User: Which sequence fits this backbone?
């Protein structure tokens, strides 16, 4: 991968927009959306920038004609040392969370949050089942990959091929995944088998800060 950070101002502006779209909307912007956001009058200008970023292996062109951000240089907005963490969007049924098709972008996260010696991924929270635990719809969750959890930790659990974020509790005979929500329609999930812990929530990036 081309890791030289000697990008032009126009390239950096495009990378920042692509990154923000990936985090806000779960997809990269189209040529016309980029053209509008960056104030260009011609789509060719954007196409030229995208082609240059593809050549430098910053973005990857997909079979559907779209593209994916695969490398994010230091944009001057994060002064701490960072590490690129995969952002996972909607998890396809039956697919492991970190399957290649689930990864939308690589996002820089401070090493003060993503400590060395562990593997991490980012997951976009949906719904309000954990809002009393400070996790709101649209927030990004920093997940440390592991297959076990301790009492009271917030976990990502895979149940019936779907991922859910809940608070982990263990009794003598069962596992209880509890919501922490003001919405009383959310009920605890009681399990004895057929589930898998995919990781533990170690940080939350509020949607307003993205």
Assistant:
């Amino acid at each position: 991968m081309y890791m030289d950070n000697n990008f032009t101002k126009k390239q950096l502006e495009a990378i920042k927009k692509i990154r923000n779209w990936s985090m806000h909307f779960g997809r990269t912007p189209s040529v016309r959306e980029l053209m509008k956001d960056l104030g260009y009058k011609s789509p060719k200008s954007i196409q030229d920038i995208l082609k240059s970023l593809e050549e430098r292996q910053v973005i990857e062109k997909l079979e559907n004609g779209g593209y994916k951000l695969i490398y994010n240089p230091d944009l001057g907005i994060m002064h701490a040392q960072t590490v690129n963490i995969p952002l996972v969007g909607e998890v396809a049924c039956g697919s492991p969370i970190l399957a290649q098709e689930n990864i939308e972008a690589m996002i820089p996260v401070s090493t003060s949050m993503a400590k060395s010696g562990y593997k991490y991924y980012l997951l976009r929270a949906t719904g309000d089942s954990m809002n009393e635990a400070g996790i709101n719809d649209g927030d990004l969750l920093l997940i440390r990959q592991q297959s076990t959890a301790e009492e009271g930790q917030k976990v990502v659990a895979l149940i019936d091929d779907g991922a859910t974020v809940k608070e982990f509790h263990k009794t003598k005979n069962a596992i209880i995944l509890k919501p922490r929500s003001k919405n009383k329609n959310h009920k605890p999930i009681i399990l004895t088998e057929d589930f898998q812990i995919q990781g533990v929530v170690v940080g939350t990036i509020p949607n307003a800060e993205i």
Observations:
- The helical segments are 9-25, 31-38, 43-55.
- The longest helix spans residues 9-25.
- The longest strand covers residues 195-205.
- Confidence is low (pLDDT under 50) at residues 75-80.
